[in-house]
Amino acid sequence: LDDLLTDKTKLVCVNQVSNALGVVNPIKTIIEKAHAKGAWVLIDAAQSAPHTVIDVQAMDCDFLVFSGHKMYGPTGIGILYGKEDILNELPPFHGGGEMIKDVTMEVSTYACLPFKFEAGTPDIAGIIGLGAAVGFINSIGMQTIHDYEKELVDYTIQRLSEFDEVEIYAKDAEHSGAVSFNLKFDGVHSSDVGMILDKKGIAVRTGHHCAQPIMHHFNIPGTVRASFAVYNTKEEIDTFIEGLKTAIRMLG
Hints:
Blueprint: E1 11-15, H1 27-36, E2 40-44, H2 56-59, E3 63-67, E4 78-82, H3 84-89, E5 100-103, E6 108-110, H4 124-140, H5 142-160, E7 166-168, E8 178-183, H6 190-199, E9 205-207, H7 212-218, E10 223-227, H8 234-251
Parallel strand pairs: 1-2, 2-3
Antiparallel strand pairs: 3-4, 5-6, 7-8, 8-10, 9-10
Helix pairs in contact: 5-8, 6-8
């Protein structure tokens, strides 16, 4: 990061938690280093918002975004947080109803926040659904969810570590919500493992997870990602491990 940041850097975009590996990034340090160069910071919290407590003021990020579909909400809806002074400085990117203050044939002036960024009829059903999802999370408590899911992730890494045939990526790093791995057999693709687990009724994500550069770094086409939510159990993880044993026997 120190090599990439220069006085020309205007915006640093980074995920708080990697959706590909489940690794928690040192966000506060990244923000401090970027701010020292005069750059704004946008945090992609899609993979962290459902799993951990977020405090944008303590974080001191300039923008933070996340989607609804990873936090029990509908698809196509999400949140953009931005510091008020920066949002006031930025022009709207889209035109439509509700986002104007005054329009003449010569000039337009825009409404105040947040309306100038919310042109046209909003996604009313999506907003209601996202609100219900946030209510569900708050009814349990984000810290409770975080602590419970951490138990699941730690237990999964512990169980996966039992197998010499399994490569766990970033094994010793802090994880949140997901663990990424592969079998060490030559010619075995992550999708092969995923298909066998699917036949056992176990849902995992396989492939490059929309993060091909990190896969190129590891010189692999993709990984198997086991991800967790508050409704998962250790018994389900044991079932997943039994399915993985079958995959090891079949593919080894």
